[in-house]
Amino acid sequence: MSLPLEGIRVLDLSRVLAGPLVAQMLGDLGAEVIKIERPGEGDDSRNYGPPFLTTEDGRRTRESGFYLSANRNKQSVTVDLGTPLGQDIIRQLARRSDVVVENFRVGALAKFGLDYASLSALNPRLIYLSITGYGQTGGMAHRPGYDAIFQAAGGHMAVTGAPDDLLGGGPTRSGLSLVDILTSQYATIAVLAALNHRGHSPEGRGQYIDIALLDSMVATLSHRGVQYLISGENSPRRGNVGGGGSPSQAFKCADGLIMLTVGNDSQWVRFCEAIGQPELAADQRFAKATRRIENRELLTPTLEATFATRSKAYWLDALARADIPSGPVNELDEVFADAQVRHRGMAVSVPHPLSDKLTLISNPIRFSETPLDRYEAPPTLGQHTESVLRRLLGMTEADLAALKAAEAI
Hints:
Blueprint: E1 9-12, H1 18-28, E2 32-37, E3 52-54, E4 60-64, H2 65-68, E5 75-78, H3 84-95, E6 99-102, H4 116-122, E7 127-132, H5 147-153, H6 178-200, E8 208-212, H7 213-220, H8 222-231, E9 248-253, E10 256-261, H9 265-274, H10 279-282, H11 289-294, H12 296-307, H13 312-321, E11 326-328, H14 332-337, H15 339-343, E12 347-349, E13 359-361, H16 385-393, H17 397-405
Parallel strand pairs: 1-2, 1-6, 2-5, 6-7, 7-8
Antiparallel strand pairs: 3-4, 9-10, 10-11, 12-13
């Protein structure tokens, strides 16, 4: 059965996380993805370990968990972009591609004649995605940056973490590379929209896409950002306490933490029954959602004392029977052992040329007609160089030998 993007070819010039995640998603959707890497070195993220994948006899490979998370369903081709021969290879591949993904600093690829203006002149149908820290314009466009910088500058840290007056309080970064991940989602949507536009435009023209990590973080502020824009007041940090209902937070049980949210007044009545305190539902200080938020500091100690008396399993069962949104605060081992996660197939084992132990996180998209069932292991460095250059560019053994001698591949 065909996949949604079969017939689309992606030339992935990106490194580390945001760009590679875009190319991986396009590969999951069926596109052919050719990942360009530096000879001998490869994607920077190959060195972001430990942990590293190990061989069957326990030897460490150079395949880091970081790299493996963002590069499945790709072919690795090593090309030195700093050489004229390497640049010509990229131009030839771009002529035969639908999408280019790159995350070099502003202007870096123009020096090699590999920018959008140069490549679109060769292939007007080309969709060219550039991911940078600050975008292609503005006074900071040429500055470097990483995920944590944009969590800080884009407001995420300001609304994440415990209040300043609590032990350990203060702005806190996400434990995930959140900006890279979210930027990749915006960028993937942009590429799909550009492909659709190209398919409907009379000339079949591609276009340039400028995506900035800072822009993506600011856009992701969502309701917290708009609340500021309409009120002029900075949003408080609440730690594990939600802002849309009460109670909506983590509670410590006898053997660990659970998270729950009571989102409306009918849930509140069922919640009070479930925890064995129906009298709280009749208490006018807590009867309505607004009153529960206003009197959160009065309500929370009572609930904390209640949840501390029983196990996580006991409370989760009681809350589930009352149809109250709730769940455990899982460590990663518990996540991948969770019955629902396992039922949904969120971990998939794939064969790898160096190991029999590679398990990856599955794509969460579930199509009825075009299921995403292709999971090819992230390639080893340069694994497909010769096969791709033979197949797409018609190179001979003599051509390949000459390129190797010139250190272009």
